[in-house]
Amino acid sequence: MQDVIVIGGGVIGLTSAWWLLEAGYGVTLLEREAVLGSAASFRNGGQLSYRYVSPLADQGVPLKAVQWMFQADGPLHFRPEADLRQWRWLAGFLANCTAASNRKTTAKLLELGELSRRAMGELEMLIPLESFSWRDAGKMVVYRSKKVFDKAVARPDSEDARQVLSPAECVAREPALAAALPQLAGGIFNQGEAVADCHAFCQALADRLREHPRFRGVVNGEARRFVVDSGKVIGLDTSAGMLTADSYVLAAGIQSRDLAASADIYLPLYPLKGYSLTAPIRASDCALEISVTDFERKVLYARIGDSLRVAAMVDMVGEDLSLDAKRIAGLTRQVRATMPNAADYDRISPWAGLRPATPDSAPIIGATRYSNLWLNVGQGPLGFTFACGSAKLLADCVSGKAPPFSMDGLTLR
């Protein structure tokens, strides 16, 4: 039996470990944090948006980005860095801001999303749904601009069962939106989209990992560098000592960038900082039931258990995890105005995480120049959504098994 070390104990690393175990490998998991799933997987938006996978890069986005940067509560904040990686990533992003690139990447992400939906269904047979607050809530994307709404309606859609809704129908379907009714132009609803607590999912999956006969355990330590020789990785230097295995899987979020560089591999990743708010739901609140995305404001709303989770914003500020008080205040104002009665906003708990994104929004899965080093990185804001599908593809690659669809666009470019 071959042994694999998976580097990273977030949702990508944990799902990678599970599917490798199921493929017959012995697996050791390396995680630098004391608690699994406590970095980018901790309080993300919670939406499992298998069909709403549009890449960030698209025609017209650069102009919108400039406009957003001058809005006090806009969805984008940019701070220039003296770091070539930021500018190299931006150049790649701008090169992908075309309609053709967007269509190509969207088609690939829809395939990955459908694979992820089916793969999550496999885990739902093994992990109690209530353990991670999973709900088949459906997803509604609401629009404030009639022009933007009409364009979205006219766009060919992957889901024939989508429902195009008037503003009144949006509120009838989701009463928590009542206060926003005068500002709405319409909405699009899709069945089959779910919400769940990503951190709780990580904990539940970790419990199943520990029960697996081929699981070697969790090593708590920070990976420092790969030791390579003759086209192979021969060791992993960590704060817990030197670790060795037959193969290595890099799934450490934005930290993957520096680790790959230690083996002279450039990963086109940049940490897109996002914020979330979590507010408890009281019995008297008009609680959200459907997963909602406010399209123009780029704000996501989801009910997770007895809490409202709101996620938004892209801050390009490097690996800065500090909570920007102005950004939190601005998001809170928007949430109060859109859904004033949905939760107890006097008890908001803010959070920020770094989402490792590629310039075209497609993750990087599979082989490297080293015969025993594999990648599962770059899922960006859709890490939870794509985790299970990415893990299945990774296990296929490591096992030498043909994937269910072409990997074109999902490998190291």
Automatic annotation (TrEMBL):
Top-rank taxon: Bacteria
GO BP of this protein: D-alanine catabolic process
Pfam families in the cross-refs: DAO
Domain FAD dependent oxidoreductase: 3-396
Entry GO MF terms: D-amino-acid dehydrogenase activity
InterPro entries with a match to the protein in the record: FAD-dep_OxRdtase, FAD/NAD-bd_sf
GO cellular component, one term: cytoplasm
Keyword Cell division recorded: no
UniProtKB keywords: Oxidoreductase
Protein family: Belongs to the DadA oxidoreductase family.
Protein name listed in UniProt: Amino acid dehydrogenase
Native source species: Massilia eurypsychrophila
